[in-house]
């Protein structure tokens, strides 16, 4: 049974012109794009999205970075989508990411790491609902 997950092509990858290449990697891995949109977000929207990290020392830098330019928000679907996307993305720190992963190919640093993906079903449900209304999920 297909599972849905949420992903973001982050501002660093959009600025670098890597969006199409990242989307091609996602498609090649067998994901179906259920919904997709490109937009800029405010710092307040980034803070709401990352609220679970609000007590962490990197919270301000993260939310400033995520609101620094356009990003691509998407809902993806396939069997085992959450785990498969996490594997395709690679380690958060691109220096530790496996060869062939999105972060190894396109990320510059642990903060500017090209892509976000949900880490669990409850997280995916929250993240999808945060950015997409039900009617957008066809």
Would you give an account of this structure?
- This protein has 138 residues and is an alpha+beta fold.
- It has one domain (3-136): Alpha-Beta Plaits (2-Layer Sandwich), CATH 3.30.70.
- It is 40% helix and 19% strand.
- It contains 7 helices and 4 strands.
- The chain is globular.
- The mean pLDDT is 97.
List the helices and strands and how they pair.
Layout: E1 3-9, H1 11-15, H2 19-28, E2 32-39, H3 43-49, H4 59-66, E3 71-78, H5 81-89, H6 102-106, E4 115-117, H7 121-131
Antiparallel strand pairs: 1-3, 1-4, 2-3
Give a quick rundown of the structure:
This protein has 138 residues and is α+β, with helices and mostly antiparallel strands. The chain is 40% helix and 19% strand. The protein has one domain: Nucleoside diphosphate kinase-like domain (Alpha-Beta Plaits), CATH 3.30.70.
